[in-house]
């Protein structure tokens, strides 16, 4: 009796395999579409401080100092790098550093480089204006030098003067 049941089960299974052609496979396999959208972006990866050494108002030469700002962008993006006029907004085309009293004002400006990674300054003021950077070819940061300049002959009292300038990067 047990042998008969086993035989009937095996016979039923064998006929099922023959009827379906063996292992059942899908006639139309599904496909999954995979997509991504890469967005353009630029960030300031580092920025140095422009530190002027001792300013002498009696010197016939302006006082210069430099610092670098590094910008990293997604590939093929061109950064637009802007510097504002600082925390103590100047009049006209000057930035103001403030001393111990709000009336102690030392004028300066920041000039643009002649190009990315350039070791020479242009005559183009950077404050309040935008510098068009270099298109990124990889995810490596590009260095831009900021050239600070304090004009000669300013009638200011002795002391320490400071300001803070904001760097903004857009596409």
Descriptive overview:
This protein is mainly beta and 171 residues long. The protein contains 1 helix and 9 strands, in the order H-E-E-E-E-E-E-E-E-E. The longest helix has 19 residues, at 2-20.
Summarize this, please?
This protein is mainly beta and 171 residues long. It contains one helix and nine strands, in the order αβββββββββ.
Question: Which helices and strands appear, and what pairs or packs with what?
Answer:
Layout: H1 2-20, E1 42-47, E2 63-73, E3 80-83, E4 95-98, E5 105-113, E6 121-125, E7 130-132, E8 142-150, E9 167-170
Antiparallel strand pairs: 1-2, 2-8, 3-7, 3-9, 4-5, 5-6, 5-8
- Spatial extent as radius of gyration: 35 Å
How much β-strand is present in the residues? 25-35%
Helicity level:
10-25%
Number of strands: 9
Ranges where pLDDT stays below 50 over 5 or more residues in a row are 6-19
| Sheet having the most strands | 6 strands, antiparallel
Q: What gap, in angstroms, lies between the N and C termini? A: 84 Å
Count up the helices.
1
Please report the first level of CATH classification, the CATH class.
Answer: Mainly Beta
Architecture per CATH nomenclature, i.e. the level-2 architecture: Sandwich
**Oligomer state of the chains in this structure:** single chain
Quote the CATH topology.
Answer: Immunoglobulin-like
Give, in order, the helices and strands.
Answer: HEEEEEEEEE
Structural class: mainly beta
**Inertia-based shape:** elongated
Specify the CATH homologous superfamily: Fimbrial-type adhesion domain
Number of individual domains: 1
Could you tell me the mean pLDDT?
A: 83
């Amino acid at each position: 009796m047990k042998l008969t049941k086993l035989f009937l089960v095996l016979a039923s299974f064998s006929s099922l395999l023959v009827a379906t052609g063996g292992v059942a496979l899908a006639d139309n396999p599904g496909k999954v579409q995979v997509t991504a959208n890469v967005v353009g972006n630029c960030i300031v990866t580092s920025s140095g401080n422009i530190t002027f050494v001792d300013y002498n108002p009696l010197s016939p030469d302006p006082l210069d100092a430099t610092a670098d700002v590094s910008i990293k962008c997604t590939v093929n993006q061109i950064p637009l790098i802007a510097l504002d006029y600082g925390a103590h907004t100047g009049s006209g085309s000057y930035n103001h550093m403030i001393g111990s009293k709000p009336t102690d004002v030392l004028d300066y400006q920041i000039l643009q480089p002649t190009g990315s990674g350039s070791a020479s300054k242009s005559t183009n003021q950077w404050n309040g204006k935008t510098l068009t950077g270099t298109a990124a070819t990889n995810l490596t940061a590009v260095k831009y030098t900021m050239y600070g300049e304090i004009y000669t002959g300013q009638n200011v009292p002795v002391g320490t003067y400071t300001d803070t300038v904001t760097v903004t990067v857009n596409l």
